[in-house]
């Protein structure tokens, strides 16, 4: 079945640094990728939608200058958390949808980010 | 997006069928019913989806009422590994997924 891979699976870094998370579709071309964030004991919250070769569309309340998204190819999207602070600590999950729209959206296994 | 209503939590004995209900009384004609689940500390896993006909795959069955205002996800022989949060999502086929709170399913040994 379709597989979405995220890297790294967990990261710990100091406050003020920037962190990049990669999301790859391994066996299909993803015209659209999504980024979600999940805090403990809460549901997933959609942060942004990105289409290959165009700017991402951010959900209300999500700072686009804080969370930089790049979707440069049909198999790779990246999320960069810039100048990360402890409140940015969360579980970040990417998702990808195949070019053929009758396929379901598939999710990666997430990246656990801890900012000290 | 049409809203969905799911019970907060459910228990099911191991080996029995787990029946998870979902109400979506405001569903539109072009909206599909999708089910995903999230096992602790993992990303969501796609289970099944349907428009108006009942569907079955290797994981589960999806029963949609004739008026499409509710549906039931059936895990035919639940195992401990089926313990997860199950999300019922209603949306047009090519729209983004917005997650609700889901149902926390506990499979009891």
Question: Which secondary structure elements does this structure contain, and how are they paired or packed?
Answer:
The complex is a heterodimer of chains A (116) and B (109).
Chain A (H helix, E strand, L loop, with lengths): L3 E4 L2 E4 L5 E7 L4 E9 L6 E7 L5 E2 L8 E7 L2 E6 L8 E9 L7 E2 L3 E5 L1
Parallel strand pairs in A: 2-11
Antiparallel strand pairs in A: 1-3, 3-8, 4-5, 4-9, 5-6, 7-8, 9-10, 9-11
Chain B lengths: L8 E5 L4 E6 L7 E8 L6 E6 L4 E2 L4 E4 L5 E6 L8 E9 L10 E6 L1
Question: Main attributes?
Answer:
heterodimer; A: 116 residues; seven-stranded mixed β-sheet; four-stranded antiparallel β-sheet; 11 strands; B: 109 residues; mainly beta; globular
3D architecture notes:
The complex is a heterodimer of chains A (116) and B (109). With 116 residues, chain A is mostly beta strands. In chain A, 0% of the residues lie in helices and 53% in strands. Chain A has no helices and 11 strands. Chain A has strands at residues 4-7, 10-13, 19-25, 30-38, 45-51, 57-58, 67-73, 76-81, 90-98, 106-107, 111-115. In chain A, strands 2, 4, 5, 6, 9, 10 and 11 form a 7-stranded mixed β-sheet that branches. A 4-stranded antiparallel β-sheet of chain A has the order 1-3-8-7, with no helix packed on it. In chain A, strand 5 (45-51) and strand 6 form a beta hairpin. Chain B is an all-beta fold and 109 residues long. Chain B contains no helices and 9 strands. Chain B has a 5-stranded mixed β-sheet with strand order 1-9-8-3-4, with no helix packed on it. In chain B, strand 3 and strand 4 (45-50) form a beta hairpin. The radius of gyration of chain B is 13 Å and the shape is globular. Chain B starts with 8 loop residues before the first strand and ends with a strand. The relative contact order of chain B is 0.35.
